[in-house]
Write a structure and sequence with these properties.
By secondary structure, the chain is an all-alpha fold. It has helices at residues 2-38, 44-67, 72-106. It is 90% helix and 0% strand.
Length: 107
């Protein structure tokens, strides 16, 4: 019984870790896509970022749905947590950079 429980817990941990990695990659692709669109650099590379950003997490979730359906929720939780964490870290980083720029301009 303990072995079954440990196996179940281990598979959930692996699902969360895969979800975190997937979310981090998705955030990177989303960031590249948004910066290329807002920087007026629309082209083939931008389209590639857009398509990949959409299909990559979808493919990971489909794989989980077929191979490990009991852990699909945990992979989704990992993706969502990673996306939220990356967005908060990026926001704090940009805010600090803006504050430093304002301080330099005042001097």
């Amino acid at each position: 019984m303990l072995e079954e429980l440990m196996g179940d817990v281990l598979s959930k941990i692996v699902a969360v870790l895969v979800g975190i990695a997937t979310g981090a990659v998705q955030f990177f692709l989303l960031f590249k896509f948004v910066t290329s669109v807002t920087g007026s650099k629309a082209g083939t590379k931008t389209l590639l970022f857009a398509v990949t950003q959409f299909l990559f997490p979808f493919a990971v979730l489909v794989i989980f749905a077929f191979l490990l359906p009991n852990n699909l929720m945990w992979a989704g939780i990992g993706i969502a947590a990673s996306l939220i964490t990356c967005a908060i870290v990026r926001f704090v980083k940009v805010s600090k950079q803006k504050e430093q720029t304002k301080k330099k301009k005042k001097k």
